[in-house]
Amino acid sequence: MERTSTPCGDERTQRHTRQLLRRVGDTWSLVLVSQLVGGPMRFTELLRAVDGISHRMLTQTLRSLERDGLVSRTAYPETPPRVEYALTPLGQTFLGSLTGLVVWGEDTQAEVEEHRSRFDADRH
Amino acid sequence: MERTSTPCGDERTQRHTRQLLRRVGDTWSLVLVSQLVGGPMRFTELLRAVDGISHRMLTQTLRSLERDGLVSRTAYPETPPRVEYALTPLGQTFLGSLTGLVVWGEDTQAEVEEHRSRFDADRH
DNA sequence: CAGCATCCAGTACGATACTG
DNA sequence: CAGTATCGTACTGGATGCTG
């Protein structure tokens, strides 16, 4: 029973959370996971659906998500080859856990923007 | 009323959330904010308290948090100069919004680790 | 003490070309 | 179609030294 009402937790938890944020705070992980909510998608589908992503980053990010068990990869032995990516249950719970942050971002976005403008203005 | 039960939201929300994650997913922001939960701290106090942070990154990260309005900076016109950093109300609500993610990280950490090992092992 | 400027290594990312 | 390899660039973060 600690006095902490905020999720700072012990040092170990902090380290984990920081690593998690770094891991997931890259350019494309979140977009891809969000994109896959609608159901499985193929490589090229994703490439077209996600605006601005490069071939290379799509491969890399999918690999990384697959490695962590958030996304599953299914290859069908056909010609031409077909590979489908889908959200795993783990990936779905992950998206759910973001709710708090997403809501906070929506709620405070204007306020943060305001702070930034003011700060930048004051600095000459 | 959309079919989305997960916080993927519209494209605008997605972009905001991604930017938020990037902004906050750097090496030190989260550690600093967590550290300040206990109350205001001085520059050198933070430098000592946060293990591994460099002088430069402390300045930079504090600036950036101040800019976003998550942290307040109070300079006392004394000699030697004294500056105290504290969490703003906005900063506190931010920490609160992380609860879901922190819990998810704790709950699934072992599972994710397991996935990684297995993945790395399979890749010969 | 608090903060800034400079320099440097590591990495993230994009463009492109090539393989099964 | 899906994936790998190579290259160039831009940014991030650490070490260090200077200023008020």
UniProtKB/TrEMBL annotation, chains A, B:
Residue ranges the record marks as coiled coil: none
Pfam family, one: HxlR
Single GO MF descriptor: DNA binding
Presence of keyword DNA-binding: yes
Taxonomy, superkingdom: Bacteria
SUPFAM superfamilies (alphabetical): Winged helix' DNA-binding domain
InterPro entries (alphabetical): HTH_HxlR, WH-like_DNA-bd_sf, WH_DNA-bd_sf
KW Ligase (keyword) present: no
Residues covered by the HTH hxlR-type domain: 8-113
Keywords annotated in UniProt: DNA-binding, Transcription, Transcription regulation
Name of this protein: Transcriptional regulator, HxlR family
